Amino acid sequence: MQRRKVISLIGGGVVLAASASVLGTREGEPLEANSSRDIAGNYDEARMAALSWAILAPSPLNLQPWVAQLLDDDKLLIWRDKDLWLPESDPDGRVMTISMGCFLEVFRLAAAEQGLNAQTQLVPGGEEGPLAQITLRSGAQPDPLFQQVSTRHTNRQSYETRLPDDTALETLHNEASSIITDSEIVEALRELTLNGMLTEVSTPRIRQERLNLLQMGERDANTVVDGETALAKMIGMQPGLSLFANERQDTQTLQEARMSLATAMRATPAYATVKTGGNSRIDQIEAGRRWLRFWLTATAQGIAVQPVCQVLQSYPEQAAHRATLYELVADPQETVQMLGRIGYAPPGKPSPRWPIETRVLAS
What we know:
The chain has 363 residues and is α+β, with helices and mostly antiparallel strands. The chain contains ten helices and twelve strands. A four-stranded antiparallel β-sheet has the order 3-4-6-5, with helices on one face. A four-stranded antiparallel β-sheet has the order 7-10-12-11. The protein has a two-stranded antiparallel ribbon with strand order 1-2. A hairpin with a 2-residue loop joins strand 8 and strand 9 (228-229). Helix 2 (46-54) packs across helix 3. The longest helix is centred in the first third of the chain and has 20 residues, at 94-113. It is globular, with a radius of gyration of 20 Å.
């Protein structure tokens, strides 16, 4: 029997989503990274095929806040799961909305691969409604960037000191707002992004927000996988989470984690930004689309990427860091939506995904 999970949507609605046992996975178990990529596209129904690729989009803490509602034969609504909102670290929902933009762009690429144009109306019902309404129509041409969707991942390792060559930098700049290689600015950003991360982990209510997520998973007995809750497994794959769980770690472990983080952040040869002229929901969605395309372009060039956006978060403890960042990389009329470190590094390990059936509303 399918287990049903109540999903709360932005706007106050509540729906029941079927959490099916699919392709051999246990109920509620996240698919391992390689499995989710192997299964992607393996659906006859065009919308499900595109959605199975779209779930590979990046999201904060790998929370995957998207919910799809299928309508008629060719339409769907895309909602935000408000249970996965981060009210302390992302109080205005900007980061969540950017991740939804990434999701929409992968969906568009996956639909185009099937020759379908994803005609998208953004925020059709205002803030309290779905984030997007999509209608599929024939006539799209495949986009070469789609070939990078399955290999894109966050690489948190130390990067080589060498910069990408001029041709690669120009290609990246076609998608990003700026590629920063100036040695003085890069050095300032290394320390700034590290301090932003350390501010995040030393702010009690932000740390508690992360711990609450883990405890939320622990309360659901159906999510236990290999001695861990599925949610803990999903989020716990993010290196550095032990910095949040200081009540569970000894001092030496915490010190080693901080040193490892500092080593990686200081081994960064360049940065990329995506900026917009405003900061509306549509601006944020478009920033997510552009960031996703930049990331896929970098992946095609063999260049590693890690978002380092803690300094952009809007809670008060980051305000001084955010102001410094704007002085370094932005003009007065610009909103910096994304900041990432880029360089060369050995491939990292992709994060797992919930099966798509757990993110599609039951009819």
